[in-house]
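User: Last request for today: this protein with zinc ion, please.
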Amino acid sequence: MFDIINKLTQTFGPSGNEKKVADLIRDMLKDKVDEVKTDVLGNLICIKKGSGKKIMLAAHMDEIGIIVSFIDKNGFLRFSNVGGLNPFVILGKRVIFENGSVGVVWYEENIDDIKNIKLEKMYIDIAASSKEDAERLVNVGDMAVFEAGTILQNGRIISKSMDNRIGCAVLVQTALNQPETENEIYYVFTAQEEVGLRGAGPAAYGLMPDMALAVDVTATGDTPECKPMAVKLGAGPAIKIKDRSVIAHPEVKDLLIKCAIENNIPHQFEILSQGGTDAGSIHTTAGGIPSGGVAIPTRNVHNSAEIVDMKDVENAVKLIEAFINQ
Ligand code: CO
Ligand code: ZN
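Assistant: Here's the final one, the structure of the complex with zinc ion:
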């Protein structure tokens, strides 16, 4: 499964530019499902036909990044954020554009206090010597993402873009396993989650499922002096209770808990005080769709080095397989 995760995390796909990720997933799944389609917003929908309940499984394909807003006469780039981006997180990091051009993020050093650093006070150096020089590599409107490798160490993976290629990997692996079920399963790889859960709602409206699960990352409370949170790496996938976008529907939440207990799958419960997920836009679609979530515990979310535990990932696949067979 590491190979799938490696390929997914290393594929370029900031919000609104998910096509490369969608193409990769389409290639991985096209022989394992009955139908594959892409909708107007760029959501990739893989359908396994069935006569039972219609179950939508959603994982967002997009990753956070930056967008070039201005190029100065010396070839330095000014930029804006695509999704939630902390200035301290991006400071000193490498970013990579779709064409492979690499830049380094730095800041105006005459700032009186580093605590006042804002994205407007930062720039990207792409090793250009003039505006014309820079424009041979990059244009205003181009997006870039973190440039960082994906490594497996001690049963855990350190990588950029775990949010949410790890969710995509879980759904890809589930579909590849071809779990036995009479239900109709919609594996939906959504667009534009990081800019406001924009793709998932329209995808759900088009499919009108009987219930939905969002598969995404969640924060943990297991690092030095962090905010208390009852989720830790290696203790199993987290069943969503609540985040800022959704209160999990009791029918979905209880079914997940039942599946976990019956199949001896370690699990924990997610109450995420910051951030939302695709279930937030799915559950208010049309007349309302019972929705919940399965979350992969992840350290350092929205950073270039996010960490997950392989056991949690594998157990998430098991939990979702049990869920869709109900
Ligand atoms: Co995110
Ligand atoms: Zn996410």
